[in-house]
Amino acid sequence: MLRVEYLYWLVGAFLIAAAWFNVRERHYSMAAFWLILSGPFVFGDLVLAAVQRNEALPAQLMGGGVVALGLLAARGGLRSKADTPAEREQREHSAARIGNRLFAPALAIPLLTLALFFAGRHLSVNGTPLLDPKALTLTSLGLASLLALVAAVRVTRARPLHSIVEGRRLLDSLGWAVLLPMILATLGGVFAATGVGETIAALASAVIPVDSRMACLLAFALGMVVFTVIMGNAFAAFPVMMAGIGLPLLVLRHGADPAILGAIGMLTGYCGTLLTPMAANFNIVPAVLLELPDQYGVIRSQVPTALALMVVNVALMALLVFR
Amino acid sequence: MPGAINYWPLLGVAVVVVGFTLRRNPVLVVVTAGLVSGLCAGMPLPDLLALLGRTFVENRVLLLFLLTLPVIGLLEHFGLRERARSWISSFRGLTLARFQITYLGLRQLLSMAGLIDIAGHAQTVRPLIAPMSESAAEGGRGTLTDSQRDRVRASAAAVENVGRFFGEDVFVAFGAVLLIQGFYARNGIVLEPLAISLWALPTAIAAFLIHSVRVRLLQRRIDREMRSIGKDGAADASR
Question: Is the pLDDT of residue B233 over 80?
């Protein structure tokens, strides 16, 4: 059975290969960065198993690795190598030679993911399912990436190892930005463990005039946005704002409709997601991927939409929840 | 701490705000914020390191997309982005606004059908949507300036985000809907997931309309800029 751990090992192997290439080019801090980052992928299961057995040392070492990654990220700037005219000409040339067949492997990733996701429940070898049924989306995505790689090698007639070289080029140009989503999720875990959310909700409910339902609604909506901006994730903001303001004040005291309040409240939080560098995988990573000079370029282009939608959401809630 | 709330962990939030405002390296800012918040909560350093390490490992799924990099890198080396551009420019009359609004609508529909991770910044926006957007914006009228190109690319990423976020909640089995339902269920309010997800529709429609208008405005601005530069460019060419 294809377990998601096997895919993590592949990611780990890719990171180690990237580290090796950097060692050979004497980019030692970049190499150390990828090598440390391969740790959670190669040893992740062992660490979590040790935590289950109440052994703290492996997790503590990993924590030390997180701090080291932070320091290394601050040292090394992002460097994407400039494109030479010769490379550009070579790409134009092979684009013309291969033509639209180039699209097939790229489109194969989403389409195969989809197909495997739906077929996955029925695929089995000698009674064992081919894909882990508990992590079907992830194993589908992983297998689809591998199959697409085979297709890409066939279409381009490149050496298979060439794909690692090119993948590593992309990885290096992403640099520390690649780590940001994972490290932010880690910060979310720390904030949850230290009760940051409850403290903010307590502060908020202490200052709003609780008898006015509009004041409560505005505090809830703004709280969802602000808290999502801080945490980078509306999922983290929702239980906090709901427990602090939504449920006690709006639903129980002012009789708001819980289904509408929940649905539109969550979407109000998403307006915050469009605004925050904390939602790095949506806002910062693409700015790096698209080689924008301003790391806040994507956020800048989303601000007007986010603010307008926020106003729409508040208006919708004001109209609908107190029916 | 019975009774009194410990406000000191909020310093971690302050570190994040100040660090991002000063544009310090985000990874370092976030690691520092975690350490500050944990130490202010009175957590001993070994426990804090273990917490950091465990949550870090638990979130490694977020980097599974790295598996797509060798495919995308290889295809890019062989001219995927160049091909995407020239293919789009073969459609006469396809404008930036038409292309991106179509993608926005399609992305929302895919999200609504639960196909949330079918597209993404690494696997679709960088290799396909961004170069196609650039080509559609040029519309055979010459090349974009650096500033125009960056705005078009940023808009491609924004279209992906808006389409993904404001479609997904309409899908019943999506995490957000189940999170909302679960929260209420724990507090004694039983709701059907469908009853929640249907109320995401008005916002989904509003998001489509608002963002379509914004893409159209971007197109208008670029058209205007290109017309005024186009005159200069024509003058240059005739010299």
Answer: no
**Is ipTM beyond 0.85?**
no
> Are A263 and B199 in contact, with CB atoms under 8 Å apart?
yes
The beta-carbon neighbor of B73 closest among A114, A166, A260 is: A166
Say if residue A159 is in the same domain as residue A186. Answer: no
Q: Cα–Cα–Cα angle for B174, A257, A249, nearest 5°?
A: 105
Do A123 and A189 have their domain in common? Answer: no
| Single residue among A119, A142, A176 that ends a domain in this structure | A176
Please give, rounded to a whole number of angstroms, the shortest distance from the CA of A293 to a CA of chain B: 8
Examine the domain organization and report whether A30 and A113 are in the same domain.
yes
Closest CB from A8, A270, A298 relative to B60: A8
Residues of the domain holding A167: 4-176
Amino acid at A259: A
Q: Is A200 on the interface with B (CB under 8 A)?
A: yes
- Identify the pLDDT of residue B237: 43
Please indicate whether, in this complex, the C-beta atoms of B38 and A193 are within 8 angstroms of each other: yes
Between chains, do B35 and A67 touch, taking CB under 8 Å as contact?
Answer: yes
Do A139 and A244 share a domain, yes or no?
no
Q: Which amino acid is located at A29 in the chain?
A: S
A53, A145: one domain = yes
For residue B2, the model assigns a pLDDT of 44
Contacts within 8 Å (CB) and 24+ apart, B217-225: B218/B96, B218/B97, B218/B151, B218/B152, B218/B155, B219/B95, B219/B96, B219/B97, B219/B137, B222/B96, B222/B137, B222/B144, B222/B148, B222/B151, B222/B152, B225/B145, B225/B148
